[in-house]
Design brief:
The protein is mainly α. It has one domain. Helix content is 48%, strand content 0%. The chain is built from 3 helices and no strands. It is elongated, with a radius of gyration of 14 Å. It starts with a helix and ends in a 15-residue tail after the last helix. The mean pLDDT is 81.
Length: 44
């Protein structure tokens, strides 16, 4: 993912950066979720 970000910061098109790194553009632009994976949901 770091390589993808570096390419896009270097003005490489997102489509090209995704193809070169094998990262889906949808995954690359997704905002990371807070909390760890596998943590149960908090219900009220």
């Amino acid at each position: 993912m770091d390589t993808y970000r570096q390419l896009t910061k270097a003005t490489i098109a997102t489509r090209t950066a995704a193809r070169l790194t094998g990262v889906s553009r949808a995954t690359a632009t997704r905002t990371p979720r807070t909390g760890g994976a596998g943590q149960p949901a908090q219900y009220c």
